[in-house]
Amino acid sequence: MASQLLCPQVLTPDIVFDTAKSHKFTTYGEMFSVKSMCKLASILMDCEAIQLPDGLDDFETVFKHLDDGCPILVPYDKDESTAPCCRNGNKAHWAVVLGYLLPNVPPSLVSTLNQDKCFPNLYHKPKNVDLSSELTSHIQHNRSSVYVYAKQGKSKHLGVWSYQDLILSNNNLMEWQADKNEVNEKDMVLPDGGIKEGLSGQIVLLKQK
Asked: Where are the alpha helices (DSSP H) in 68-173?
């Protein structure tokens, strides 16, 4: 999904895996390092990939980035429906975040938005209109009512996830245990400090050069 926005060529799972393995970022397809994901994204898509150490808690940077039409890669624990959950990192996967939804828009902002032609209660932020400062304040005070449009790699469907749930899931990545029937954990590529240091509380901002 991110490659469709940033890269003209088609990136198949095999191309991504072979490239990651050739650069020693992975053994079986695991990716437990935000730093390695930044390098891999830069190689595959020839884009800027920026590690955001404060992660999703950096509201102003995150929503300004999405307002600019740029995707974000987020490591998180996924449940059976691919939505965020908290399992200490034992269900760690990656998702791409593409946009956001605010159920309750401040009245002061409504006049700056474009009303949807089919759904009169739905409004869209116009392109090239910077509302990041106003939205950041609103989001900080209404975290539980903010949602993001996101997609996990294996899913065919775009999800609408609670932003607060995604923050909690991203921050809870502390450990990982291999399925003994599938892989040898000793062969996994793990950063110093494990996935807590490699993933927890961190995200990747992607944008064209």
From this structure: 107-110, 132-141, 163-171
- Gap between the Cα atoms of 108 and 36, Å rounded: 42
CA 6, 10, 13, 19 torsion-angle sign: negative
Amino acid 111: pLDDT: 81
Q: How crowded is residue 115: how many other Cβ atoms within 10 Å of its Cβ? A: 11
Does residue 144 contact residue 164 with C-beta atoms inside 8 Å? yes
Regions of the chain short of the pLDDT cut 50: 1
Structure token pair of residue 174:
């502390």
Q: What is the largest CA-CA distance in the chain?
A: 57
CB 31 within 8 A of CB 25: yes
Residue-level pLDDT at 20? 96
Provide Rg for the chain, Cα atoms.
18
Residue 22 to residue 167: CA distance in whole angstroms: 32
Helix count (H) and strand count (E) of the chain?
Answer: 8, 9
- Chain length of the chain: 209
pTM value surpassing 0.85: yes
- Report the distance separating Cα 42 and Cα 47, nearest Å: 5
Name the one residue in this structure whose structure tokens are 């009169």: 120
